Amino acid sequence: MFPLHREREQPIFSARAHVFQIDPATKRNWIPASKHAVTVSFFYDANRNVYRIISVGGTKAIINSTISPNMSFTKTSQKFGQWADSRANTVYGLGFATEQQLHQFSERFNEVKDGARLAREKSQEKMEMNNPGLSIAAPQDLCDELQSPPVMCANGPEDKLFRSQSADITLNAEKERIKKMLSEGSICEMNLETELFTLQDSNAKLVAALHEANANVEQWKKQLVAYQDETERLRDQVADLEAHGGHGPSDMLKDELTQSLEELEALLKAKDEEICILQAKKSDFHEMEQEREEAIHRIQELEMRNVELERRVQGAEQSLANSLQERDRIESEVHRVVEILDVKIFDLNDLRQSLVKLIDK
What we know:
It is a single chain. This protein is α+β, with helices and mostly antiparallel strands. The protein has helices spanning 2-8, 99-130, 140-145, 148-155, 157-182, 187-244, 251-360, and strands spanning 9-22, 30-32, 38-45, 50-57, 60-66, 74-75, 80-85, 90-95. Strands 1, 2, 3, 4, 5, 6, 7 and 8 form an eight-stranded antiparallel sheet that branches. It starts with a helix and ends with a helix.
């Protein structure tokens, strides 16, 4: 399927990024669609006059999204962006290595979206010019006599416009739902997870490069020792030749030995420079390792703060429960005292009436 499309489609822009899809069950969390960074490309189909975003991981299509003028690419962090595809009923997310790559992808997305809008307008204008009778409402009896206009009315620009308006309404509703979903507080967590995933991938690559560089350094050190031994041997031979004068080999042999010595010295110098470059790369790796440790430390601090906030919330809830229990106890005590007072007042009233009767007698 995809090789046939590639033959008629031309790539216009490509970038490498980590691909994510929204969880269809929760509509809140991201699910990684690729284990590592993959190539995400914009393609233009000249035959159908459409633009698509395609990303293939192995033999599987990770992204196959046709761009419409109503789509929008949203930057949710410095290195992460997303867009909704109503036809695929999903939301795609891309995590880039740098902010510049995200900016370039966003600009190209807007350009392609404008191109899709112009392509649709030109297609509608072309169909209207080829079928001028579509813009005039024909009477019912004329439509009964001529069968071609009803077919064109059913599949012409008006039906496409109606479908486009319906898709716009669906897309707007999807946008509102996605904005509501993103506003509930999961953006920061997703960005941290994406950044940590990118740092882990970069760390794995740097560790592999460092191991390879260390192996090359060890090999070049052995070659350097061998070259130094060879240089010393050649120097000794040259010194012996100079000491023996005319009794040794010819001047041509001396020239060859001198040339070999110079070549070995130049090779030693080049190897020394390569070793210095590898040592500089090793220091860069240590800096990246330190940045990764700092990111992990920040995430741990955020987790500790979340635990502390949860503990404080639990303490506040416990205090509130205790306060409610104390209030209920006080209210019950007040009711009991009020009942006792009512009884006492009733007794006093009876006593007063008894005293009045005694006085009257």
